[in-house]
């Protein structure tokens, strides 16, 4: 390790300060960046990649290709304060933003909300929210912190996936056809992946067909892959062996009816499978196996109208059908047992967004209606005899939301964005021979926020946002039922259909600077959450000698922190450097406390920092990036008392990526990751472990590894 973490962190802070220092403005030329324009012509209104008053990260497909991104871990590798949440068996399941994950982060694809997480048990059934292939994405927009316009679930933040458009592959006008082939390899999981993309424009129609296939094994830890290791139990150091595969299909067809009307249809199909031997859960006489599958299907229609009238300057509405299903099969050799469980969420979504310019006010408003059917079913087969149960009753969910937002240019330097939203949801359950209905649950919420930006000078802008948010409880929080009786005792998990929605009050403020040679941003945030849903013990009794448990609205949580990020064009700041040199940096610090239990919040990631030095040759034929990442260890005082044995150490990573374009049609990307072969634990990988006898070496991340891919377009 050739640098000290403290020096590294200080250098990033220095970067942010220097890149925004007015003394550098003397060298700024006429090409310096101006403040974002707020008022725009009606026929130029487009979806924005920025949110007034918020800290936003936008990751483009070019960013993903340059960093050889194949999964969520790769995508978020250089985003301090944002991480992927994963499980040793079920893989990457969600996104953690500022200490909140699962359904407390809103995730959508082309505006369509993704299925809720469902994981009422620690084994045998766990659904995630990671049913998207990143090769199909145009961009990923991450809004950190609350955002009421997105509705229920946007407590910790929002992740907006946008799928690729035909136009990105085609000439700016006229008939055109493009075909591209991409193939790559990642050594960390022995993954081979291939993508074929075909785009066409004929007259007023555009179409796109994109297909990706991936084959891989288990992702290595620092020791390597599973190899021939058959050690069983918690002492196992190797990862469990697995064979993984996925297929993703994206199809689009769009028609420009006339100057003001465009319609289109989209279809998505995603399927991933994983077969593994769970040596870590097995014993010498009882071998566990897993056969897991996740599938998502979506068909959608949209209509966009820009014919200015008294109601709107632009209208976009869409109707989507989406079905998401996870099936987890577990086998046990000793009892000749097969546990076959699934969770399925079928949804029809109608969404409309309108924009109207009224003098200095740009009014955005709209609504969404989602009709969902949710089902879980469990089959347990022992020696040929099958029993069937449910964890939750079959349920229908009706979700309605309505919002209004005013982007008001109060002066030529001040932007105010007030917004208000109304949400109403209802779960209706149906009992059957497997489980009682347990009753219905319904509630409503009125939330509001105010965002602002004020230009102090042409260089400096202060910004902030404050408001309230909420999250409706999900199916397993409301209705999870399980009873177990054995000679050693009995226990029960009892549903609570009277749960209230979780609530939040949030505030964030910051300052950003932007000049021709670079930009910087400092953000501080404070979030107060109430009615957190958490499982609690109701005590023991003669009936339940091992206890009775249920979910309740108990926890009061406070999360606060600061983030700094900056970018410096070294070629404009240092005279002797050629064009193409850029320095980027970011730091994120968050702390959280469960005030109900007077304990630290374990979902908070430790302090992290990233610095990247990049170069792009003026010819754009080659370039590369050197990234340095430092993460502070998770200290005992920042961990709840029962988890302090999991305390981790600091770690530092070095990654090197490069690209080469020998011709206009061919691009080759290569990367060397964890260059120094650092052995480390990621806190979010282990924070849910409960048995102190577990060998933590099994949870280390991959050591030195490589990746390469090539894309040919014709």
From TrEMBL:
Entry keyword Membrane: yes
Bias kind Basic and acidic residues: ranges: 215-228
Record-stated family: Belongs to the TonB-dependent receptor family. Hemoglobin/haptoglobin binding protein subfamily.
Region (Disordered): 215-244
All residue ranges annotated as the TonB-dependent receptor plug domain in the record: 51-158
Keywords: Cell outer membrane, Membrane, Receptor, Signal, TonB box, Transmembrane, Transmembrane beta strand, Transport
Predominant location: membrane
Organism superkingdom: Bacteria
Signal peptide annotation: 1-25
Protein name: Hemoglobin/transferrin/lactoferrin receptor protein
Bilayer topology annotation: Multi-pass membrane protein
Upper lineage: Bacteria, Pseudomonadati, Pseudomonadota, Gammaproteobacteria, Oceanospirillales
Stored InterPro entries: Beta-barrel_TonB, Beta-barrel_TonB_sf, Plug_dom, Plug_dom_sf, TonB-dep_rcpt-like, TonB_haem/Hb_rcpt, TonB_Hb/transfer/lactofer_rcpt
GO cellular component: cell outer membrane
Annotated TonB-dependent receptor-like beta-barrel domain residues: 255-675
Pfam families in alphabetical order: Plug, TonB_dep_Rec_b-barrel
Any one GO MF annotation of this record: heme transmembrane transporter activity
């Amino acid at each position: 390790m050739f640098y000290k973490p403290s020096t590294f962190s200080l250098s990033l802070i220095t970067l942010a300060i220097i890149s925004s220092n007015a003394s550098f403005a003397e060298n700024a030329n006429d090409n310096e960046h101006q403040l974002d324009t707020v008022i725009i012509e009606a026929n130029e209104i487009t979806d924005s990649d920025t949110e007034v008053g918020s800290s936003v990260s936008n990751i483009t497909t070019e960013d993903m290709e340059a960093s050889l991104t194949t999964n969520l871990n790769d995508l978020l590798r250089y985003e301090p304060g944002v991480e992927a949440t994963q499980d040793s068996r079920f893989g990457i399941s969600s996104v953690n933003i500022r200490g909140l994950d699962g359904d407390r982060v809103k995730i959508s694809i082309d505006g369509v909300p993704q299925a809720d997480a469902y994981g009422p048990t620690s084994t045998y059934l766990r659904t995630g929210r990671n049913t998207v292939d990143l090769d199909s994405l145009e961009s990923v927009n991450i809004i950190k912190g609350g955002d009421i316009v997105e509705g229920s679930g946007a407590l910790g933040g929002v992740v907006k996936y946008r799928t690729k458009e035909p136009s990105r592959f085609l000439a700016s006008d006229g008939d055109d056809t493009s075909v591209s082939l991409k193939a790559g390899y990642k050594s960390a999981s022995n993954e081979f992946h291939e993508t074929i993309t075909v785009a066409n424009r004929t007259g007023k129609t555009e179409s796109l067909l994109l297909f990706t296939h991936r084959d891989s094994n288990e992702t290595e830890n620092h020791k390597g892959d599973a190899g021939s290791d058959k050690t069983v139990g918690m002492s196992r150091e190797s990862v469990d062996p697995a064979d993984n595969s996925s297929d993703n299909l994206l199809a689009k067809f769009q028609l420009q009816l006339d100057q003001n009307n465009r319609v289109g249809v989209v279809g998505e199909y995603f399927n991933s499978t994983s077969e593994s031997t769970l040596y870590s859960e097995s014993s010498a006489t009882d071998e566990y196996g897993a056969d897991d599958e996740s599938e998502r299907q979506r068909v959608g229609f949209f209509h966009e109208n820009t014919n200015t009238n008294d109601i709107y300057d632009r209208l976009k509405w869409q109707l989507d059908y989406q079905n998401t299903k996870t099936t987890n099969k577990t086998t046990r050799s000793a009892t000749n047992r097969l546990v076959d469980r699934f969770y399925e969420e079928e949804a029809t979504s109608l969404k409309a967004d309108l924009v109207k310019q009224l003098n200095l006010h740009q009014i955005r408003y709209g609504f969404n209606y989602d009709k969902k059917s949710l089902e879980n079913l469990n089959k347990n087969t022992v020696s040929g005899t099958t029993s069937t149960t449910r964890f939750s009753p079959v349920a229908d969910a009706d979700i309605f939301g309505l919002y209004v937002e005013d982007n008001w240019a109060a002066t030529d330097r001040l932007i105010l964005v007030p917004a208000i939203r109304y949400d109403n949801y209802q779960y209706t359950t149906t009992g059957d021979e497997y489980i009682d209905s347990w009753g219905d649950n319904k509630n409503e919420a009125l939330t509001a926020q105010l965002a602002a930006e004020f230009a102090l000078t042409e260089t400096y802008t202060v910004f902030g946002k404050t408001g309230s948010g909420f999250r409706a409880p999900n199916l397993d929080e409301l209705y999870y039922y399980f009873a177990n009786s054995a000679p050693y005792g009995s226990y029960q998990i009892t549903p609570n259909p009277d749960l209230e929605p979780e609530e939040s009050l949030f505030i964030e403020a910051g300052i950003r600077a932007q000049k021709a040679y670079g930009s910087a941003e400092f953000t501080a945030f404070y979030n107060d959450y109430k009615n957190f849903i958490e499982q609690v013990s109701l005590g023991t009794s003669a009936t339940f000698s091992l206890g009775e448990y249920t979910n309740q609205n108990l926890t009061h949580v406070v999360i606060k922190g600061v983030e700094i990020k900056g970018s410096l064009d070294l070629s404009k700041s240092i005279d002797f450097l050629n064009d193409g040199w850029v320095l980027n940096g970011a730091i994120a610090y968050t702390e959280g406390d469960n005030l109900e239990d007077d304990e630290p919040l374990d979902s908070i990631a430790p302090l992290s920092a990233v610095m990247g030095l990049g170069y792009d040759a003026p010819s754009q034929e080659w370039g590369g990036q050197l990234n340095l990442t430092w993460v502070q260890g998770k200290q005992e005082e920042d961990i709840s008392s029962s988890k302090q044995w999991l305390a981790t150490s600091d770690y530092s990573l070095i990654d090197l990526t490069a690209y080469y374009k020998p011709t206009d049609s061919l691009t080759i990307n290569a990367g060397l990751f964890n260059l120094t072969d650092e052995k480390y634990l990621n806190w979010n990988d282990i924070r849910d472990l409960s048995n102190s006898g577990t060998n933590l070496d099994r949870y280390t991340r991959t050591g030195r590894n490589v990746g390469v891919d090539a894309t040919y377009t014709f």
